[in-house]
Write a structure and sequence with these properties.
14 helices; 399 residues; 14-stranded mixed beta sheet; two-stranded parallel sheet; alpha/beta
Length: 399
């Protein structure tokens, strides 16, 4: 998932399209102009925002996440959802909680969700092997999305785990809390993912060739309908799920992009980044934990440097690497090319024994410095900022 927060809307000289038009063309995304946005960088704010949405929800909660480990934070938030379900039930309200986790994570931590399902939540694994058949394609779901009552949403790079909320050993990440018409777009994306998973669970997969199944799903992702005209999301298109708004909560323009291998060969976010870098005039700021960029993106950054654009990249150093070994080394060719071209590379060290060093001095800060970087962000010329859950890397570009 990708959120684009639009700035001044500057139209560059001549007949060159505006950034707003560029995002619409490359990302096939619509702009909504009535949004309020709250940046969630502090893990305490990010946690409280999710708790408030869960506890205040009256009709539905939609959650998609790449992983939900059975650790302290994962268990605590599971129990918060169970409490919300029980509270609404006591009030005579049928709160609909729908959780979509990537199949790779759901298989490992499925026991976490048993008590949630017993309380009334429904949990599904995205693109998992079913009925003895392998997954339909090699794509994974890397979303981190939280929607409450169709009115507010949180989009970020945070999963439900201690890695993001343990104040003694946490990863720095970013998120946005949104209110406005952009929430409608996020909710439709969730519902498509949910219904795709339902389609994948049916025994009818035995009856059709895989090529035909893939074609049907591609049509569904593009149009919301299968080739026979049926739409499994029509039942959600009502005021209970999409309640509308009597007045605009804000005035920030936002566009939502979604990367899905069913829709195109390459991620829309990567193609958009390449074009944005190609037209940058002043500076480009990038943040990612995995900087093994797709070659066209690296080439575009080097071309920007050649024409005098300042490029600064923030990533993890060896001490803070979320994944070491080949995962760390995979980013080195990109970093070496960028350094040689004149880019500034900033790395987070994440000193492993920092907690012990601070305690030895008799100091105990409320929030420890992060142990690693997990945020994904891009800023272009103070005109457009991007916060999303994709890593700008080759795997995110194609899978």
């Amino acid at each position: 998932l990708l959120v684009l927060v639009y700035g001044a809307g500057v139209v560059h000289g001549g007949d060159q399209e505006s950034i707003q038009e560029l995002v619409t063309r490359v990302g096939r995304a619509r702009w909504t102009t009535d949004n309020s946005i709250r940046l969630l960088a502090d893990p305490r704010d990010a946690w409280r925002a999710r708790v408030e949405l869960a506890q205040n929800a009256r009709h539905h909660v939609f959650i998609s996440t790449f992983s939900w480990p059975n650790d302290t934070s994962g268990q605590e938030f599971r129990d918060i959802l169970i409490g919300a379900l029980e509270q609404r039930e006591a009030e005579g309200i049928d709160l609909k909680v729908r959780i979509l986790a990537d199949a790779s994570a759901l298989f490992a931590f499925s026991r976490m969700f048993v008590s949630l399902e017993k309380t009334g939540a429904r949990v599904r694994g995205f693109n998992r092997s079913t009925w003895g058949l392998t997954a339909l394609y090699d794509g994974r779901m890397h979303d981190k999305l939280f929607i409450a009552d169709g009115r507010k949403a949180i989009l970020s790079g945070r999963n439900f785990s201690d890695d993001y909320y343990d104040l003694d050993n946490w990863w720095f990440d970013l998120g946005l809390q949104l209110e406005g018409a952009s929430v409608d777009d996020l909710q439709m994306i969730f519902l498509k993912s949910w219904e795709f998973t339902e389609f994948n669970r049916k025994a009818g997969r035995f009856l059709l060739p895989q090529e035909m199944l893939l074609h049907e799903l591609q049509v569904f992702w593009r149009t919301g309908r299968f080739p026979n005209g049926n739409s499994p999301i029509e039942k959600f298109v009502n005021q209970e799920y999409f309640p509308g708004r009597s007045e605009a909560p804000g005035s920030v323009p936002v566009a939502i992009l979604y990367d899905n291998p069913f829709m195109r060969r390459r991620a829309a976010s990567t193609d958009l980044l390449v074009e944005l870098v190609g037209r940058a005039e002043d500076r480009i700021e990038l943040m990612t934990p995995f900087p093994n960029f797709d070659p066209p993106l690296t080439d575009a950054l080097i071309s920007a440097l050649d024409r005098g654009v300042a490029v600064r990249l923030f990533t993890n150093g060896r001490e803070a690497a979320i994944r070491s070994g080949p995962f760390l080394l995979a980013g080195y060719p990109t970093l070496m090319r960028l350094v040689e071209a004149g880019a500034q590379i900033w790395v987070w060290r994440g000193i492993s024994d920092l907690l012990h060093q601070i305690e030895a001095e008799g100091c105990r800060p409320e929030l420890m410095p992060p142990s690693a970087l997990h945020g994904k962000m891009m800023l272009v010329d103070d005109e457009l900022s991007i916060v999303h859950s994709s890593n700008f890397n080759i795997r995110s570009t194609y899978y």
